[in-house]
Specification:
Blueprint lengths: L34 H25 L8 H9 L6 H4 L3 E4 L5 H10 L8 E5 L1 H7 L5 E4 L4 E5 H4 L10 H14 L3 H7 L18 H16 L4 H8 L8 H12 L2
Parallel strand pairs: 2-4
Antiparallel strand pairs: 1-2, 3-4
């Protein structure tokens, strides 16, 4: 699912300053300078740069949430949510999800995802802030949101594997060289011949996340037709050239 619906999207934040590049000076070792000292100075400079970046990311709200209080604060800042309603949002971590959801986590085989937060949002609140989609990722802060009725469904819960899709977003962000790279890849077309006015869903991040989702469904016995039928509940016909291209790669043409 796309992340463009956020009212206070961090994509609208200013660009982060680029770290200074420290290159090793040309030193003539014959002059007796200890290369270990040079290496230590170089490492210290790198550490200083990383500290500056971390400080800036935190000031822009780009640091991963460290606890439930941070997640609650994230929702409190949304003017469309009443303060009392925030307390109705249930927060847990991916590693604590029910067993039938753990299969999605195991399929990605990435321990980093254990600490991702899940927000279960009551339907009446969800309708105010998220729209018709049942889930949404906020990869930069390590959060996935779900509509409560979808998440707690008893019959075929998460049959289409949206949890895996959203986890794949978080994984893609963690694998990116920088937050800026992740954001840029959300605008780069996956297939240039399908390029349109809007970068969603035909972008490189969605290409990666939907491919993992479709592969997971295939491995669990879903046919191409099954996947198309499930996707059609959430997307318009104009999006299907993109999805068919991905399904060609997963199921074969």
């Amino acid at each position: 699912m796309h992340e463009d619906e956020e009212p206070t999207s961090i994509y609208q934040q200013p660009e982060l300053p680029k770290a200074e590049t420290h290159t090793k000076p040309n030193i003539d070792d014959s002059e007796g300078l200890d290369p270990n000292i040079l290496n230590a100075e170089e490492e210290a400079a790198k550490t200083e740069d990383l500290a500056k970046i971390s400080e800036t990311r935190a000031s822009l709200g780009l640091e991963p949430a460290s606890g439930e209080a941070d997640i609650k604060q994230y929702f409190i800042k949304d003017p469309r949510i009443e303060h009392d309603d925030v307390e109705r949002i249930n927060i847990l971590k991916v590693k604590d999800l029910p067993e039938h959801y753990q299969t999605r986590l195991k399929a990605l085989n990435d321990e980093r995802l254990n600490e991702i937060f899940i927000a279960i949002i009551p339907d009446d609140i969800w309708g105010k802030i998220k729209g018709s989609q049942p889930s949404q990722s906020h990869a930069e802060i390590g959060l996935i949101s779900f509509r409560q009725s979808y998440f707690e469904a008893q019959n075929n819960p998460d049959e289409i594997a949206w949890l895996l899709h959203e986890l794949a977003h978080c994984q893609n962000f963690l694998d990116s060289e920088s937050p800026e790279m992740y954001q840029a890849n959300q605008k780069r077309p996956a297939f240039k011949d399908l390029e349109s006015e809007y970068p969603y869903p035909n972008n490189q991040v969605e290409q990666a996340t939907f491919t993992k989702q479709f592969q997971y469904l295939k491995e669990r016995g879903k046919s191409r037709e099954d996947v198309l039928a499930m996707i059609s509940k959430y997307y318009d016909e104009v999006d299907f050239p993109f999805f068919n291209r991905l399904l060609d790669n997963v199921f074969g043409e």
